[in-house]
Structure formats: C-alpha cells, structure tokens
C-alpha cells in the first residue's frame, strides 16, 4: 500500500504572478482564492483550499509538490522509510505549514527529479463557499483519486520507479518504451487513478516539470477548453487518446512555459491486483496528441 493517499497540490514559481492570475480564471476556468496575495496565488479546483499555487520568483518551474498522507502514523512511517533509504527528511516549520494550509508536513528532495516533495497531513478543506468554475465548466473529478497527476523529468526513470515503489509504496502502472531506444517514461499510482506521478526522460529538458493533468467531468469540457486554447494560440498538442490510461485529452501551455493536460474518461486501476504493463510509443498505437513527442 502506498504511503501517500493522493496528490494534494502543485505549487510553482513564476516571474508573472498577475499573468497566472488571469490565466487561472480565463484559461483554466478555476477560481482564485480570496486568500491569495500579490506574491502568492492560491487556485481552487474543488473543495480543497488550493490545488495549484504560484509563488513570485524567477525560475518558472515547479517549487514543490504536496502529497496527502492518511494519518500521523503514516507520516512518521513514511519519514522513517525515507530516512532508512538515506534520504534527508525535514519537518516543515509552522509558518510553512500555515502557508500550505496543512496541519503538518515533512519534505524531501526527490533524488531523481530534484523536485521538493511534501508529505502533508490535513490539507485544509473549504466547504463553503463551494468551488465555482470561472467559466462554463462542469468541474473536475478529484475526491479520493486526488487532483490529477504530475509529470516530472528524470534521467533515470527506472531508478525513480524503484525508489517510489520500494520506499513509498507506489505501484507501477506501466512503462513506456521508444522502439530501438529504450525506456522513456514510468507511470505510478497511489490510488485508483491510473497515475498520480510520472517520470519522463527527455535529454536537455528545460525545467523539472512537464505537466499537470486535471480530469474533467465531461468530454465537452475538454472540447471547449481546446477551442479556447486554439483561439489563444497556446495549445501544445492536438486532442487525442493515450495508450496507457485511455484518457481523451489535450495539452496547453501556461505562463511559465510548462503545460496542463485536460482529460476525460481515463480508466482506473485496482492497486491490489494491478500488474505493471509495458508498451511501445509510436504511430498506430493510439490517435491524436500531435506535438506530444516534441513537447518540453
Ligand atoms: Fe498526462
């Protein structure tokens, strides 16, 4: 069983927080929390205080990724497992916990992507006011499956798969290979969502994060969002269906240069019975997503 129960939040750093504020409502269709400040934007997508955060800064990359742990005992046990694996684990300060809107957390640097991972207890829920999409969207499937997934760059994707499965109990959903090249990506689950975390090897990737995916409630939400992004010239791929999670989706760029994926209808996994799959990337296996193999 995974030490974490779901992806709770992704926070980035940006040189353009006002641009992100506009983007969050106009493009993502999300809600900017009233708790936001000039140098820290909190973006709501469901009943959590925030799912996306943007801090003022200059590197336009991911700052940290938050993962729910189900209990204090689970938090301590995960910290002990990391420590035993030789990973430095630090307890977040009360100020940092208040900033994340969690009761407490520990953090470590992912040895494969260099991204700060935060294991959090008690990420704040906001029951009222209810989340209201900023444009005509039906909303997002999150709940127990978490906010979606995050895909990070890593050179050693097989090492990352070993680390997250052996130390933190993630399950490997599948490996993607490029014919005649070798392993290219690994997709990991911590609940019924096909993948909450993935690592992709793209030599010379310009940052640590590639994309964050949100699962829309309706297929039309993907279509309308695609039209809107086409109008603005910010699509990163065409629409398509993925080989592995079967999601119908497309990718689009944010003001920091990394990407979001809005997807509908993914298949789920049963973490108790799932067997890791392996598949080849290439033409003829699925359709669409033109531009994906060039997306960094
Ligand atoms: Fe994705």
UniProtKB/TrEMBL annotation:
InterPro entries named among the record's database cross-references = Glyas_Bleomycin-R_OHBP_Dase (IPR029068), Glyas_Fos-R_dOase_dom (IPR004360), MMCE/EMCE_epimerase (IPR051785), VOC_core (IPR037523), Xdiol_ring_cleave_dOase_1/2 (IPR000486)
Q: Does the keyword Ribosomal protein apply?
A: no
Q: Where is the VOC domain?
A: 6-122, 146-265
Q: Please give the superkingdom of this protein's source.
A: Bacteria
Q: Say yes or no: keyword Ubl conjugation present.
A: no
- Keywords noted in UniProt: Aromatic hydrocarbons catabolism, Dioxygenase, Iron, Metal-binding, Oxidoreductase
Q: Which Pfam families match?
A: BphC_D1 (PF22632), Glyoxalase (PF00903)
**Family annotation (PROSITE patterns):** EXTRADIOL_DIOXYGENAS, VOC
Q: Which CDD domains match?
A: BphC1-RGP6_N_like
Cofactors: Fe(2+)
Protein family membership: Belongs to the extradiol ring-cleavage dioxygenase family.
What protein am I looking at?
Biphenyl-2,3-diol 1,2-dioxygenase
Classification of source organism: Bacteria, Bacillati, Actinomycetota, Actinomycetes, Mycobacteriales
